[in-house]
Amino acid sequence: MALCVICLDTLKSPMALPCGHVYCHECILSKIEFDVTHLSTHRCPSCRNPYSITNIDPNAVPGHLRSSVLPSLRRIYLDGIQDVPAPSVETDAEVSKLRAENAILRAYCESWKRRANLHSAVICGVAKVAREQILGMREDREQLEQKYQSLKRKYAHLELE
């Protein structure tokens, strides 16, 4: 039983990276989509080795090298592996424990996400009120400046004496 280190679940449609690490097809694709979309170079979640997701046109590669050019994401089939040890009771217990911990962490993430959204809504509301107050204070300052200038002109003769 092979596990995906991203979702901590049994591998579903396993995909291998050039570095040899294996992940679920959906997990590695969501990781790629989560990364900056305009980059073609990504990093393995386990070892941080870079890999490219750009497809190479086989016509651009000389004929004698085409067999050496492989895609970065390759589907693999694990059914034929004979020397994979059978999962032990300890492993199953640890997997169950990790899945439970993963579920708790996901719940915490959702909770913090809701808090962050609420916090940003409050901050945006406070920023809006502050902006409105700033605009009101600017208007008040302009009115006071105009009033000051008119009084200054009106009583300019008193300053001369």
Describe the structure.
The chain is mainly α and 161 residues long. The protein folds into two domains: 1-84, Zinc/RING finger domain, C3HC4 (zinc finger) (Herpes Virus-1), CATH 3.30.40; 85-161. Helices cover 50% and strands 9% of the residues. The protein has three helices and five strands. The strands form two sheets. A three-stranded antiparallel beta sheet has the order 2-1-5. A two-stranded antiparallel ribbon has the order 3-4. A hairpin with a 6-residue loop joins strand 3 (41-43) and strand 4. The longest helix has 66 residues, at 89-154. The termini are far apart. Residues 127-161 form a coiled coil. This is RING-type domain-containing protein. One of its GO terms (molecular function) is zinc ion binding. Keywords: Coiled coil, Metal-binding, Zinc, Zinc-finger. Residues 4-48 form the RING-type domain.
Summarize the structure.
The protein is mainly alpha-helical. It is built from 3 helices and 5 strands, in the order ββαβββαα.
Q: Provide the CATH topology of the largest domain.
A: Herpes Virus-1
State the helix count: 3
Q: SSE string, helix = H, strand = E?
A: EEHEEEHH
- CATH class of the largest domain reads Alpha Beta
Per CATH, the superfamily of the largest domain is Zinc/RING finger domain, C3HC4 (zinc finger)
The share of residues in extended strands comes to 5-15%
Shape: elongated
Protein structure class: mainly alpha
Q: Order of strands across the biggest sheet?
A: 2-1-5
Instruction: Give the number of DSSP strands.
Output: 5
The poorly predicted ranges are 80-84
Mean pLDDT: 80
Number of domains as seen in the coordinates? 2
CATH second-level architecture of the largest domain = 2-Layer Sandwich
Q: Helical proportion?
A: 40-55%
Distance linking N and C termini? 100 Å
